[in-house]
Design brief:
Layout lengths: L10 E6 L3 H11 L4 E6 L2 H10 L4 E5 L7 H11 L4 E6 L4 H9 L4 E4 L4 H13 L1
Parallel strand pairs: 1-2, 1-3, 3-4, 4-5
Helix pairs in contact: 2-3
């Protein structure tokens, strides 16, 4: 690579869910040569990763061991203000939407996830 060639940076995605199957499916759906994907099964593991690594987009389960996904969303925004955060939940209703907004999450997706919507969101955030 010459000095005039610039290697594009990877779009960094973090998936945090304590259900391994959900993490694996999301990672597979989002897999791309232009993305790096990290998976963590606890908020603590995510925070340890985030202390050394910025992310562009995070998919967080609302219920995590030790800390809620909503609390983790606030911590991510404090560490990396430009990161997009999507809360994934099986709960419906205005209450979860209000809680996510208060936690500075950018979006709430309801389980079961629509993987087309997940991919569309990841693509749209990457080009902003």
């Amino acid at each position: 690579m010459t000095a005039t060639e610039i290697k594009p940076s990877l779009y960094r995605i973090l998936i945090v869910d304590d259900e391994p199957a959900i993490c694996e499916i999301l990672a597979e759906v989002l897999k791309s040569p232009t993305r790096s994907i990290e998976i963590r099964d606890t908020a603590r593991g995510a925070l340890e990763f985030l202390a050394q690594n910025p992310v562009d987009l995070a998919f967080l389960d609302v219920n995590l061991p030790g800390m809620s996904g909503l609390d983790l969303a606030q911590r991510i925004k404090a560490l990396h203000p430009h990161a997009r955060v999507i809360i994934c939940t099986g709960y419906c209703g205005e209450e979860i939407e209000a809680q996510a907004q208060a936690a500075q999450a950018d979006r709430v997706l309801h389980k079961p996830l629509d993987f087309g919507e997940v991919l569309q969101l990841a693509d749209s955030y990457a080009i902003e």
